[in-house]
Design brief:
By secondary structure, the chain is mostly helical. The chain has six helices and three strands, in the order ααβααββαα. The chain folds into two domains: 115 residues, Arc Repressor Mutant, subunit A (Orthogonal Bundle); 30 residues. 69% of the residues lie in helices and 11% in strands.
Length: 156
């Protein structure tokens, strides 16, 4: 495809798709579970990762540590998360889901799968396989490009 205008750019098109998908998820998660998008990401990740540090959680959710800290504090106050001291590092704190958080994850994750399937159902099985391979390949390539850019601008 020849790029003729801004709306042809891959990043623009991916952002449009991501924003539409996110708006659907936001609406449903807000109505069903009273969770903001990033709160759901935290619960979703902790439902899969078990105990993690705030720093790792911030990286996984793709927010800075201070934003992650505020979201975690809110989720702790609302009974979704707990903090414990890291047995391997007494200065470290690990986060994990409470019974309420785990129950929410177990109810919300199937809804996320359903939304995912509803979006992807317009693709044939073959298209879906190719699409997922392309996403993986583009993601790896973009990470490599970002790492290369970061290395090239490092100041000694």
């Amino acid at each position: 495809m020849i790029i003729k205008n801004f709306k042809d750019l891959l990043t623009y098109r991916l952002n449009v798709l991501a924003n539409l998908s996110s708006k659907i998820a936001t609406h449903l998660n807000q109505v069903e579970f009273q969770l903001a998008p990033r709160e759901w990401r935290i619960i979703g990740l902790l439902g899969q990762l078990e105990k993690v540090s705030l720093q790792r959680l911030a990286i996984e959710v793709d927010v800075d540590k201070s934003q992650a800290s505020r979201m975690v504090s809110s989720l702790i106050e609302r009974g979704y998360l707990k903090r414990v001291i890291d047995a391997k590092d007494a200065r470290g704190i690990l986060l994990f889901l409470t019974v309420k958080g785990l129950a929410t994850f177990e109810r919300a994750f199937p809804s996320a799968i359903d939304r995912n399937e509803a979006l992807l159902k317009v693709l044939t099985l073959q298209e879906r396989i190719v699409f997922e391979r392309c996403l993986d390949k583009l993601t790896l390539h973009a990470r490599a490009q970002l790492e290369q850019m970061r290395e090239s601008v490092q100041v000694p």
